[in-house]
TetR family transcriptional regulator
Amino acid sequence: MRNAEATRERILEAAMAEFSAHGIAGARVDRIAKNADCNKNMIYIYFENKEMLFTTILQKNLTRVYEEITFTPDDLPGYAVRVFDFAMSNPDLMRLMAWFSLEQKADSPVERGQVHDQKVKSLTEAQNSGQVGAAFPPEFILTTIMTIATAWTAANPFGPLLDPKSIKNVEPLRDAISRVVRLISLEGLQN
């Protein structure tokens, strides 16, 4: 059993590298098997097909994101900075998400929608209680936070490509992200 689990983990690691570099369409099961030091048939035994392998990797990493980055509607700037730090530390995952968005071949994991819906609900409650301004819909606020917080990752065509010097010192970026999100979250609050 131990060897089977070790083989499965090697496949997942090799597949993460392959999918983040080449996407679903460009990924090759032969390369994954070679890099995982296993027989190609083992991939099909464990995961059925390439799309299921991709979905498994995506779900595993999204679950990790949900566990490591706590959503705090009462501290949206802090949440945005945590997303930024995670995104900058996990470039392969950001590329994987970019490929997922571009190719749309795999079904979006159910948990992703549920987590998003829970964040919208929590943000709506924070707006109703006056902790967060109601000038913008909660869905817009979440999308804006995620966009701003991930703008300097390797998967974004603007941040690092247009301003490569900015990622050499991320403290000013962290500060700017926090300040922008604070402004967005306070918009519409009565002073």
User: Anything to note?
Assistant: Residues 34 and 40 are 8 Å apart (CA to CA).
